[in-house]
Amino acid sequence: MADWQKIDGGITAPKGFKAAGIAAGLKSSGMPDLALILSETEAIAAGVFTTTQVRAACVDYCRQRLQAKASARAILCNAGQANAATGEQGWQDALKSAELLGTELNISPQAILLASTGVIGQRIKMDALAKGIPSLVAAASTDGGKDAAKAIITTDLVTKSIALETIIDDRPVRIGGIAKGSGMIHPNMATMLSFITCDAAVATHLWQDMLKRAVDKSFNQITVDGDTSTNDSVIALANGQSRTSAITEMGKNAQKLEAMLTAVCQYLAKAIARDGEGATCLIEVQVSGAPDNKAASTVAKTIAGSSLVKSAIFGRDPNWGRIAAAAGRAGVKFSQDELQIKLGDFILMENGQPLEFDRQAASNYLKQAAAGAYLQEDTVLISVCIGNGSGTSTAWGCDLTYKYVEINAEYTT
Amino acid sequence: MADWQKIDGGITAPKGFKAAGIAAGLKSSGMPDLALILSETEAIAAGVFTTTQVRAACVDYCRQRLQAKASARAILCNAGQANAATGEQGWQDALKSAELLGTELNISPQAILLASTGVIGQRIKMDALAKGIPSLVAAASTDGGKDAAKAIITTDLVTKSIALETIIDDRPVRIGGIAKGSGMIHPNMATMLSFITCDAAVATHLWQDMLKRAVDKSFNQITVDGDTSTNDSVIALANGQSRTSAITEMGKNAQKLEAMLTAVCQYLAKAIARDGEGATCLIEVQVSGAPDNKAASTVAKTIAGSSLVKSAIFGRDPNWGRIAAAAGRAGVKFSQDELQIKLGDFILMENGQPLEFDRQAASNYLKQAAAGAYLQEDTVLISVCIGNGSGTSTAWGCDLTYKYVEINAEYTT
């Protein structure tokens, strides 16, 4: 049983956080494109960033800042231009963005973290940004979470926002989060971004470790098209304003906080996979029996990322051979004589032997589960057991549709 | 300059080989589905097979046979049923197939190699196979290469066949090859298969080493959808009937033979990528400046396999940001300040800085090259340099189209 409840408010649900989202003219569509998350007091800050060799300036900037000091007052995010692969000029633009916001907020630019999303190779429209910042700061409020959630999206069809509350030391402790992303990478709108706020008091190293583990069980387990972004960033702030005692080591309270943090990350990660470009349903792949969790994760992500499996699910076709083939090529050693494959409750293969099954009923399961997944009430569930090991993992993905090709072929730079 | 010339005849061009392809009723379509390649005398045999954990019975069978003795008289290939993930029964069916053909040819079943392609999880239709074998053997002839090329395909739109001739010891030496595959894996028709015949006399270990290296530079460098097959097999027979002196160590003649073998493999590999499911054009990705060839290969294959790059090429969109992003996530360390990206002759990024370029002209290049690629006269060329290293590699792929999704979603098991 979950030890927390859902509440309203998104990233401004935790105490001491304000947020804003405005249209500053960065997107040619005129949609909101500039977001601010502001902590009233200094918050400890943890970040997990893309591991790719081609990175946006903001990713290098945040890494450097957090290495120097793991705390922050504000996060500034622009949508429309990714500021990735923009060379030295992109780096200068990042520094200038922090300076502009620091001046307006009257705080050190060092206390500001940055994120960008949009077209790779395009610089931020700095004039529009400079003009927008005073309005952005003026708009910051304790119920601005929704506006910020809107201002960070690009090709997303829906905003992704959540807030959870638990009790620590008899006081409510809250975590809020927003995310954007319609794929691990967007067409030209490269990026998966998530910002998380928390009002617990927690030691810096512990917060970073918790975030890393939570990301490994959530954002790192989703795939839409296998393309990693140049801008992927997850930043989590914790400001201690719940006034609970500081969590400085692993223990009951730390576990409670980490479980809630993980739940927030998983909610947002699944929301991204469900909103995958062109997708009609969320696919959940559960792998068990692996030598360890890492091996299970590799198999789960390979199945969730297989174009053939994804196409079959789009066709509502219980084509288990493709699932077996994807598991086999994942790079994890196992005996095919121990392979078990299930689709929902239908066992399709057992001990490496194909079973007779009701193909029509299995196809009907796919149709129903996919329809339910569309309504966010269900998922298409693929379960694979590869042996007797204790390793387990869950990955999430979406189906591959005509719409995905359309979005990515017909968008012209 | 190539040291050989193209000749007619495919796999029956080399001396001492016969082949046949017939419709034995394995495919419900009634198309040819059973192929035989027969060497008049014992030929040394080399094989390279899928590395996946979920393998077809014929793959395990060939591995075992070739480990015991690296020679063969015949290859039997059925299309329609992959005989993969068919458990113990699939293994018995493989043994029985070899036994049936051995009896008909009056040779040991040990001298027969097997390959299957078709729906994963389906057993070979053994009754049809048994009935077909006498006609198959009767049909074998020295100009049966074309028939065999037809009988091994499944969703392929065209057959893939080639023969080359060079001079060794003043005598003609020939290599012929056929292949099937419309992707690394087919929808339900899992498989990339290639069979190669050669009339040179060459030492067993040398032939196996040559084949391995040739496959690494050809079949292992193509990707259609990133899904590795359960049945992938390349088998090469060399029977010595050119009556040239035996090639027993690396030297001028061995290099000549290996170069020609590599050319045969690359021709067939590119033919497969060009015939990728739903593809409209062949994409060639050349990577240079890597620390070593392996690193270059990894980057080249990641770019060629990126759904976003493939979609952009389908849209004839010079969207170099996606190429940079794919290079960055390949898992190879490089400095983004040294990245150069070219599309045809257009330099789009230099020293990690985006360059101004004529977008319309670059899009026109894509349109022309893709049209040429369709006619097998051209390819869409992407060149990426990631640093100052000496590592280079070329990979081949195809664009991602609506048709790919249609083929893979609308095929119902």
Q: Specify the structural class of chain A.
A: alpha+beta
Oligomer description: homodimer
> What value does the Rg of chain A take, in angstroms?
22 Å
CATH superfamily of the largest domain in chain A: L-amino peptidase D-ALA esterase/amidase
Q: Name the chain pair with the biggest interface and residue counts per chain.
A: A-B, 71 and 71 residues
How much of the polypeptide of chain A forms β-strand, as a percent range? 25-35%
Query: Helix count of chain A?
Result: 11
Q: CATH topology of the largest domain in chain A, what is it called?
A: L-amino peptidase D-ALA esterase/amidase
> Could you name the ranges of chain A where pLDDT drops below 50 across 5 or more consecutive residues?
184-190
Q: First CA to last CA of chain A: what distance? A: 48 Å
The CATH class assignment of the largest domain in chain A is Alpha Beta
Major sheet size, sense and barrel closure of chain A: 10 strands, mixed
| CATH architecture assignment name of the largest domain in chain A | 4-Layer Sandwich
Global shape of chain A: globular
Give the SSE string of chain A: EEEHEHEHHEEEEHEHEHHHEEEHEEH
What is the total number of structural domains of chain A? Answer: 2
Tell me what you see in this structure.
The structure is a homodimer of 413-residue chains. Chain A has 413 residues and is of the alpha+beta class. The first copy, chain A, has 2 domains: 270 residues, L-amino peptidase D-ALA esterase/amidase (4-Layer Sandwich), CATH 3.60.70.12; 129 residues, Roll (Ubiquitin-like (UB roll)), CATH 3.10.20.340. Chain A is built from 11 helices and 16 strands. In chain A, α2 runs parallel beside α3. The longest helix of chain A is centred in the middle third of the chain and has 23 residues. About 2% of the residues of chain A have low confidence. Chains A and B meet through α8, α9, β14 and α11 of A and α8, α9, β14 and α11 of B.
